[in-house]
Amino acid sequence: MGKRLIQQRRGKGSPTYKSPSHRFKGEIKNIRFGKENINGKITDLLKCPGHTGPLIEITLEKGERKLIIAPEGVRVGESLEAGEDVSLKIGNTLLLKNIPEGTSIFNIENAPGDGGKFVRASGTFAKVITQLGKKVIIQLPSKKKKHFNSECRATIGTVAGSGRTEKPFLKAGNKYKAMRAKNKLYPSISGTSMNSVDHPFGGTSSNHKGRPTIAPKNAPPGRKVGMLKPSKTGRGGKK
Question: Which CATH number among 3.30.390.50, 2.60.120.10, 3.40.50.2000, 2.30.30.30 corresponds to the domain 21-71+89-165?
Fold first, then answer.
Protein backbone atom coordinates (compact mmCIF):
# COMPACT_ATOMS: atom_id res chain seq x y z
CA MET A 1 0.00 0.00 0.00
CA GLY A 2 1.35 3.41 -0.95
CA LYS A 3 1.94 6.01 1.76
CA ARG A 4 2.04 9.79 1.62
CA LEU A 5 5.64 10.10 2.76
CA ILE A 6 6.90 13.40 4.14
CA GLN A 7 9.38 13.63 1.24
CA GLN A 8 6.45 13.52 -1.17
CA ARG A 9 4.39 16.04 0.78
CA ARG A 10 7.29 18.50 0.86
CA GLY A 11 7.95 18.07 -2.84
CA LYS A 12 4.33 18.83 -3.71
CA GLY A 13 4.86 22.49 -2.76
CA SER A 14 1.95 23.04 -0.38
CA PRO A 15 1.93 26.12 1.92
CA THR A 16 2.75 23.88 4.92
CA TYR A 17 6.23 23.16 3.60
CA LYS A 18 6.82 26.35 1.64
CA SER A 19 10.07 28.18 2.31
CA PRO A 20 9.58 31.56 4.10
CA SER A 21 11.32 33.44 1.31
CA HIS A 22 9.28 36.59 2.02
CA ARG A 23 11.65 37.18 4.96
CA PHE A 24 14.80 36.86 2.86
CA LYS A 25 16.67 39.98 1.78
CA GLY A 26 16.71 39.02 -1.90
CA GLU A 27 18.32 36.83 -4.52
CA ILE A 28 22.10 36.57 -4.31
CA LYS A 29 24.03 36.46 -7.58
CA ASN A 30 27.44 37.47 -8.86
CA ILE A 31 27.69 40.86 -10.55
CA ARG A 32 27.25 40.40 -14.30
CA PHE A 33 29.74 42.18 -16.51
CA GLY A 34 30.55 42.41 -20.21
CA LYS A 35 33.61 43.79 -21.94
CA GLU A 36 33.72 46.80 -19.60
CA ASN A 37 34.55 46.59 -15.91
CA ILE A 38 31.88 47.43 -13.35
CA ASN A 39 32.68 49.39 -10.18
CA GLY A 40 30.61 49.59 -7.01
CA LYS A 41 30.81 50.72 -3.40
CA ILE A 42 29.73 48.74 -0.33
CA THR A 43 26.89 50.64 1.32
CA ASP A 44 25.65 48.18 3.95
CA LEU A 45 26.26 44.86 5.70
CA LEU A 46 23.17 42.66 6.09
CA LYS A 47 22.13 39.47 7.86
CA CYS A 48 19.67 37.25 5.99
CA PRO A 49 17.92 34.23 7.58
CA GLY A 50 18.24 32.40 4.29
CA HIS A 51 22.06 32.48 4.31
CA THR A 52 24.62 31.34 6.87
CA GLY A 53 27.08 34.08 5.94
CA PRO A 54 26.48 37.86 5.98
CA LEU A 55 25.59 39.80 2.83
CA ILE A 56 26.78 43.13 1.49
CA GLU A 57 24.78 45.70 -0.44
CA ILE A 58 26.69 47.27 -3.33
CA THR A 59 25.68 50.46 -5.14
CA LEU A 60 26.95 50.42 -8.73
CA GLU A 61 28.02 53.45 -10.76
CA LYS A 62 24.58 53.82 -12.39
CA GLY A 63 22.81 53.74 -9.02
CA GLU A 64 21.73 50.10 -9.23
CA ARG A 65 21.89 48.15 -5.97
CA LYS A 66 23.02 44.53 -5.79
CA LEU A 67 23.27 41.96 -3.01
CA ILE A 68 26.24 39.61 -2.92
CA ILE A 69 27.81 37.30 -0.35
CA ALA A 70 30.20 39.15 1.95
CA PRO A 71 33.86 38.07 1.77
CA GLU A 72 36.07 38.03 4.85
CA GLY A 73 37.74 41.37 5.53
CA VAL A 74 35.57 43.93 3.69
CA ARG A 75 33.99 47.04 5.23
CA VAL A 76 31.37 49.65 4.42
CA GLY A 77 32.66 52.30 2.02
CA GLU A 78 35.11 50.00 0.27
CA SER A 79 35.06 49.80 -3.55
CA LEU A 80 34.76 46.51 -5.43
CA GLU A 81 35.09 45.66 -9.11
CA ALA A 82 33.84 43.03 -11.53
CA GLY A 83 35.38 42.41 -14.94
CA GLU A 84 37.85 40.43 -17.00
CA ASP A 85 40.96 42.45 -16.16
CA VAL A 86 40.34 43.67 -12.60
CA SER A 87 42.86 43.16 -9.81
CA LEU A 88 42.88 40.10 -7.54
CA LYS A 89 41.45 42.04 -4.63
CA ILE A 90 39.23 40.38 -2.04
CA GLY A 91 35.60 40.78 -3.12
CA ASN A 92 36.29 41.34 -6.83
CA THR A 93 34.55 39.09 -9.38
CA LEU A 94 36.44 37.60 -12.34
CA LEU A 95 36.20 34.83 -14.89
CA LEU A 96 37.80 31.57 -13.81
CA LYS A 97 40.21 31.69 -16.75
CA ASN A 98 41.66 34.95 -15.40
CA ILE A 99 42.18 33.70 -11.84
CA PRO A 100 45.68 32.28 -11.19
CA GLU A 101 46.28 28.88 -9.62
CA GLY A 102 46.21 28.72 -5.82
CA THR A 103 43.74 31.61 -5.41
CA SER A 104 40.93 31.25 -2.88
CA ILE A 105 37.48 31.85 -4.39
CA PHE A 106 33.79 31.41 -3.54
CA ASN A 107 30.31 31.68 -5.11
CA ILE A 108 31.38 29.77 -8.23
CA GLU A 109 29.03 29.47 -11.19
CA ASN A 110 28.09 26.02 -12.43
CA ALA A 111 27.32 27.38 -15.89
CA PRO A 112 28.28 30.79 -17.29
CA GLY A 113 25.74 33.39 -16.22
CA ASP A 114 23.81 31.46 -13.54
CA GLY A 115 24.97 33.80 -10.75
CA GLY A 116 26.83 31.29 -8.57
CA LYS A 117 25.94 27.87 -7.18
CA PHE A 118 28.99 26.50 -5.34
CA VAL A 119 30.81 27.52 -2.12
CA ARG A 120 28.33 29.98 -0.57
CA ALA A 121 28.21 28.91 3.10
CA SER A 122 29.91 30.94 5.82
CA GLY A 123 33.64 30.36 6.25
CA THR A 124 34.03 28.29 3.07
CA PHE A 125 36.37 28.76 0.12
CA ALA A 126 37.63 26.80 -2.87
CA LYS A 127 41.01 26.86 -4.60
CA VAL A 128 41.96 27.00 -8.25
CA ILE A 129 44.15 23.97 -8.94
CA THR A 130 44.85 23.85 -12.69
CA GLN A 131 43.95 25.72 -15.88
CA LEU A 132 43.21 23.30 -18.74
CA GLY A 133 42.20 25.39 -21.74
CA LYS A 134 38.41 25.75 -21.61
CA LYS A 135 38.24 23.86 -18.31
CA VAL A 136 39.42 24.82 -14.83
CA ILE A 137 39.97 22.29 -12.03
CA ILE A 138 38.86 23.61 -8.64
CA GLN A 139 39.18 21.98 -5.23
CA LEU A 140 35.94 22.43 -3.30
CA PRO A 141 35.74 22.71 0.52
CA SER A 142 34.99 18.95 0.65
CA LYS A 143 38.44 18.38 -0.98
CA LYS A 144 36.69 17.06 -4.07
CA LYS A 145 38.11 18.32 -7.38
CA LYS A 146 35.60 19.45 -9.99
CA HIS A 147 35.91 20.71 -13.56
CA PHE A 148 34.32 24.10 -14.35
CA ASN A 149 33.89 26.04 -17.57
CA SER A 150 36.58 28.71 -17.80
CA GLU A 151 33.92 31.32 -18.68
CA CYS A 152 32.22 30.90 -15.29
CA ARG A 153 32.57 33.69 -12.74
CA ALA A 154 33.73 33.56 -9.14
CA THR A 155 34.54 35.99 -6.33
CA ILE A 156 37.98 36.31 -4.75
CA GLY A 157 38.34 35.53 -1.05
CA THR A 158 36.62 33.53 1.70
CA VAL A 159 32.97 33.78 2.76
CA ALA A 160 32.65 35.78 6.00
CA GLY A 161 31.27 34.29 9.21
CA SER A 162 33.79 31.49 9.63
CA GLY A 163 33.23 31.13 13.39
CA ARG A 164 29.59 30.08 13.07
CA THR A 165 30.18 26.35 13.48
CA GLU A 166 32.32 26.83 16.62
CA LYS A 167 29.31 27.87 18.73
CA PRO A 168 27.14 24.86 19.71
CA PHE A 169 23.35 25.00 19.56
CA LEU A 170 23.08 23.54 23.11
CA LYS A 171 19.29 23.13 22.88
CA ALA A 172 17.11 21.30 20.40
CA GLY A 173 14.82 24.35 20.29
CA ASN A 174 17.60 26.56 18.94
CA LYS A 175 18.39 23.99 16.29
CA TYR A 176 14.72 23.74 15.37
CA LYS A 177 14.40 27.51 14.91
CA ALA A 178 17.56 27.70 12.80
CA MET A 179 16.31 24.94 10.50
CA ARG A 180 12.80 26.40 10.42
CA ALA A 181 14.15 29.74 9.17
CA LYS A 182 15.26 28.01 5.95
CA ASN A 183 12.48 25.39 5.82
CA LYS A 184 14.89 22.50 6.31
CA LEU A 185 13.57 19.11 7.42
CA TYR A 186 14.28 18.73 11.15
CA PRO A 187 14.34 16.49 13.06
CA SER A 188 15.07 13.53 10.81
CA ILE A 189 13.24 10.41 12.01
CA SER A 190 13.75 6.84 10.84
CA GLY A 191 10.92 5.06 9.08
CA THR A 192 10.75 2.34 11.71
CA SER A 193 9.95 4.96 14.37
CA MET A 194 6.89 6.22 12.49
CA ASN A 195 3.31 5.00 12.53
CA SER A 196 2.12 2.60 9.88
CA VAL A 197 0.10 5.33 8.13
CA ASP A 198 3.22 7.46 7.64
CA HIS A 199 5.79 4.99 6.34
CA PRO A 200 5.92 1.42 5.00
CA PHE A 201 8.41 0.55 7.75
CA GLY A 202 6.27 2.11 10.51
CA GLY A 203 4.01 0.56 13.12
CA THR A 204 4.67 -1.80 16.02
CA SER A 205 3.98 -4.93 13.98
CA SER A 206 6.51 -3.98 11.31
CA ASN A 207 9.25 -2.71 13.63
CA HIS A 208 11.13 -5.93 14.17
CA LYS A 209 14.55 -7.27 13.36
CA GLY A 210 15.01 -8.98 10.06
CA ARG A 211 12.46 -6.97 8.08
CA PRO A 212 13.63 -6.71 4.44
CA THR A 213 14.44 -3.10 3.55
CA ILE A 214 14.69 -3.80 -0.17
CA ALA A 215 11.83 -2.24 -2.12
CA PRO A 216 9.99 -4.64 -4.44
CA LYS A 217 10.76 -4.30 -8.13
CA ASN A 218 7.24 -3.22 -9.08
CA ALA A 219 6.50 -1.19 -5.94
CA PRO A 220 4.38 1.97 -6.36
CA PRO A 221 6.00 5.37 -5.65
CA GLY A 222 4.75 5.44 -2.04
CA ARG A 223 6.37 2.07 -1.34
CA LYS A 224 9.75 2.71 -2.92
CA VAL A 225 11.71 3.26 0.28
CA GLY A 226 14.75 1.59 1.80
CA MET A 227 17.32 -0.02 -0.46
CA LEU A 228 16.36 0.62 -4.09
CA LYS A 229 17.85 -1.92 -6.50
CA PRO A 230 20.90 -2.65 -4.32
CA SER A 231 23.97 -4.38 -5.66
CA LYS A 232 24.56 -7.99 -4.70
CA THR A 233 27.89 -7.04 -3.14
CA GLY A 234 26.66 -4.69 -0.42
CA ARG A 235 24.41 -1.84 0.70
CA GLY A 236 26.00 0.82 -1.47
CA GLY A 237 26.38 0.90 -5.21
CA LYS A 238 28.43 -1.46 -7.31
CA LYS A 239 31.88 -2.28 -6.03
Answer: 2.30.30.30
Contacts for 137-141 with beta carbons within 8 Å, 24 or more apart? 138/96, 138/105, 138/108
Q: Cα angle at 101 between 99 and 104, to 5 degrees? A: 70
Domain at 169-223: CATH architecture:
Irregular (4.10)
Rg (CA), the chain: 23
Pairwise CA distance, residues 220 & 227, whole Å: 14
pLDDT tens readout for residues 35-65? 888 999 999 999 999 899 999 999 998 888 9
Q: pTM to 2 decimals?
A: 0.80
Residue 191 to residue 222: CA distance in whole angstroms = 13
Q: Name 61's Cβ contacts closer than 8 Å, sequence gap at least 6.
A: 38, 39, 40
Q: Distance between CA 236 and CA 43 in Å, rounded?
A: 50
Cα torsion 104, 107, 111, 115 to 10°: value is -140
